[in-house]
Amino acid sequence: MSTSPRIVEVRQNVLKHNDEVARALRSRFEQAGILVVSLVSSPGSGKTAFLEKTLTLLKQAGYRPSALVGDLATDNDAARLARSEAPVKQITTGTLCHLEAAMVEKALEGWNLEELDYLFIENVGNLVCPASYDLGENLRLVLLSVTEGEDKPLKYPTIFNSADLAVITKLDLAEAVEFDHEAARENIRSVRPGMAVMELSAKTGQGMDHWLGFLRSKIART
Amino acid sequence: MSTSPRIVEVRQNVLKHNDEVARALRSRFEQAGILVVSLVSSPGSGKTAFLEKTLTLLKQAGYRPSALVGDLATDNDAARLARSEAPVKQITTGTLCHLEAAMVEKALEGWNLEELDYLFIENVGNLVCPASYDLGENLRLVLLSVTEGEDKPLKYPTIFNSADLAVITKLDLAEAVEFDHEAARENIRSVRPGMAVMELSAKTGQGMDHWLGFLRSKIART
Fold first, then answer.
1. Complex ipTM, two decimals?
2. I need a labelling partner for B164 at 20 to 30 A (CA). Which of A58, A213, A220, B60 fits?
3. Which among A17, A73, A173 is the nearest to B154, CB-wise?
């Protein structure tokens, strides 16, 4: 069975190796003075739409954002994000349900991090697998769309617990699905007490100002 | 790294053991004359709402449905489904992102399958992990909600390929999200040529008749 001691041991080795690569990445990011933000959520929560809007707005404001985007197959998302004119690279994972630090390291080959302000890493759409893999990021965002239901934090506590900030997306659909804002916040905080929660819509732009302000406050510019 | 020969070998053993248990389950289901339908999708695609409606309608029509429901944590879904008055049991998987045949076998202890017409198995919400695990089911449904986007079959080809029938859910929101029905069907069929596709809304009931008719046609009653 999948919980046998042998599998656990193999998994621990994988995670240990990943942690070492992630640690090296983190100090490289720090030296380059780049803010690295990773995004996790279930498939279809709107990560790519949110990221496309974020890249575009940051570019317009004179910042230098970039993105890596993980998927099992296709490079559709990289093509979408590239419309923002920010540097973007697709990572395809085959059958693997998460990104690993070594994939990030490899994808960054040839990029000069000193010339960038932000790196966004969009993980594979999955509320389970990405939880245990450190990618060297400074901040991990967990996205939850109003159409998924308020109960998801309770059902996937580990991923919500591994995140630093929760973003509720597709706010424009909240009324149509009778989204209960208070219940969602309560469920998020019962799993991760004190976690900041933002609500926004990449489609209408609602809440994006607040998010951009938050991102700007995170990097010191001279 | 996670693709080392050792992990591949361990994984193959897990899958082989799972296949053996699934095979035994399948012949047990056949002997009992029960139709077993499993459901896979990303979190928040509406599996539980769809299943609650299905159980209720089958009960009203005089059938004897039942359900097992998988989640990492909480037994909220079993409580929801139990409102239909069908026998329901929750399986909690901890950190595991899929159900395995042995969990189904264990959950069925004490149930008399001869007294049931249908068993639905709702897998953990995940578009990756459940793909390789046979649960002994007769039919595997993959659900895709209109709010997730038409591109998901291309991004998660393995799970769509492992399914027998695709169900597009939350049809009542199709207009609000400008869902492209033709693109979705085309993407599903590019991954799994010839797969039947149903569109429905558990909320409004639209398309449920067609689904019920399909279920009824699958069991021969005297």
1. 0.87
2. B60
3. A73
Domain boundaries, chain A: 16-219
pLDDT tens digits, A80-115: 999 999 999 999 999 999 999 999 999 999 999 999
Say whether A176 sits in a helix, a strand or coil. coil
Alpha-carbon gap, residue B16 to A216, rounded angstroms:
51
Mutation pick from B6, B40, B97 vs chain A, by most beta carbons of A within 10 Å, is B97
* CB within 8 Å of A217: residues ≥ 6 apart: none
| B174 Cα distance to chain centroid | 22
CB burial class (10 A; 0-12, 13-18, 19+) of residue A108?
middle
**What sign has the CA pseudo-torsion B15, B17, B20, B26?**
negative
3-state secondary structure at position B166: strand
Q: Which residues of B touch A145 (CB under 8 A)?
A: 44, 147
Helix, strand or coil, per DSSP, at residue A40: strand
Looking at the complex, report in whole angstroms how far the Cα of residue B47 sits from the nearest Cα belonging to chain A.
11
Q: Could you give the CA distance from residue B72 to residue A91 in angstroms, rounded to a whole number?
A: 27
| Reduced DSSP (H G I as helix, E B as strand, rest coil) percent helix, strand, coil of chain B, to 5 | 45, 20, 35
Answer yes or no: are the C-beta atoms of A74 and B187 closer than 8 Å: no
Q: What percent helix, strand, coil does chain A show, rounded to 5?
A: 45, 20, 35
Mutation target for B interface from A48, A128, A172, A175: give the one with most B CBs within 10 A: A128
pLDDT digits (tens, 9 = 90+) for A41-84: 999 999 999 999 999 999 999 999 999 999 999 999 999 999 99
| Angle formed at CA B102 by CA B98 and CA B104, multiple of 5 degrees | 75
| Superfamily name with CATH number, domain A16-219 | P-loop containing nucleotide triphosphate hydrolases (3.40.50.300)
- Contact between residue A41 and residue A143 where contact means Cβ atoms under 8 Å apart: yes
| Total-model pTM | 0.92
